[in-house]
Automatic annotation (TrEMBL):
The gene is coaE. GO terms for molecular function: ATP binding; dephospho-CoA kinase activity. This is Dephospho-CoA kinase. It catalyses: 3'-dephospho-CoA + ATP = ADP + CoA + H(+). The lineage of its organism: Bacteria, Pseudomonadati, Pseudomonadota, Gammaproteobacteria, Alteromonadales. GO terms for biological process: coenzyme A biosynthetic process.
Amino acid sequence: MVVSDYVVGISGGIGSGKTTVTDLFAKLGIEIIDADLIAREAVEPGKPALKAIVDKFGLAVLDDSGYLNRAKLRTLVFEDSEVKNWLNELLHPVIRQQMLLQTQQAKSAYCLLSVPLLVENKLNEQVDRVVIVDVDEQTQLQRTLLRDKTNAPQIRAIMNAQATRQQRLAVADDIIDNNGKANDLIKQVAHLHQHYLQFAKQI
Ligand code: ATP
C-alpha cells in the first residue's frame, strides 16, 4: 500500500484560487487535506473543544441547533486578545493532531495539506514543501467579491489581517501564478505534480 510520507503544504490569501488548484491536483489522484474543514470539525457538537468553549462563554455562543455561532465567537475574539490566545491554545493542538493523522493516513504518492493561514501559523516548517497560489491583490479582491457577494471593505479587512503577498512568497518553494485564466493552471499543476512524484520517491 502506498502511503503519503511526502506532504506539500499549499496556501494563498483569501480568494487566491487554492480550491481551484487543489481540485486539479485531486483530479490527478492526489489526496487533499483541508485545514479549514478540520478546524470546523473540531468544534462540531459533541467534540470536547466545543464543550470547553461553552464552559467558558456560556450557551450564548451556540445557535438554536447547538452548533457554534462563529460570528458570535469572532466578536468575542476580536474584542479581546486574551480570548484569542485561549482559543488558539485550545484549538491549535487539536487541529494539528488531526492534520498529522490525516496526512499519515493519506494513500496517494504524496498529499497536499491546504492551509489558508500556513504562514501565519508557521506551518510551513512542518511540511516537506510549500506551494503558494499567487495573485495580485486587485484580482484577488475582485474574484472574492464576485464569489462571496460581500463588500470590498470587508474583504480588504480580511486581506489586511492575513499575511502579505510578500510574506507568503518568501516561504514558497514553488509558486502557482493565478493571475491568468483558470485554464492556465492546468499546465502548472501538471508540471509540479511530476516534480512532487519524483521528490516523494526520494524520501
Ligand atoms: P478561500 O481561501 O477564500 O476559500 P480560495 O483560495 O480557495 O479561496 P477559490 O475559491 O479557488 O479560492 O477561488 C476564488 C474565486 O475565484 C472562485 O470563485 C473561483 O472560481 C475564482 N477563480 C479562481 N481562479 C480563477 C481564474 N484564474 N480566473 C477566474 N476566476 C478564478
